[in-house]
User: Fold this.
Amino acid sequence: MNAIEYEFFSIGDLAAALDRRPGTIRLWERQGYIPEGIRSPSLHEGKRQRIYTRPQIAGIVRIAAEEGILGEARPRIEKTRFREKVLDLFLDLAKQPLSGAVQLSTEKRAA
Assistant:
């Protein structure tokens, strides 16, 4: 059987990668700095988790580093180009299958 797995991460994973709290990521989503992650299927009584792909998280972290909002001396996010760059990232990834999810094929490759 040829199966393809996709790798997703929670808002907590994104927050940890940015050294922030999940509440900060939710605030940034509401303010438009980060597009809201896709919602997972309902697992428990209608609760659905925001999920992100590895390329989305890696890109957001890269952009945050470029804009200087990682670490101790971080400028106010509204004084950076973070929003525009993250939007461009998500638009570029949306052109790829499943918003740029990493495809992990279980198919054996010829040596």
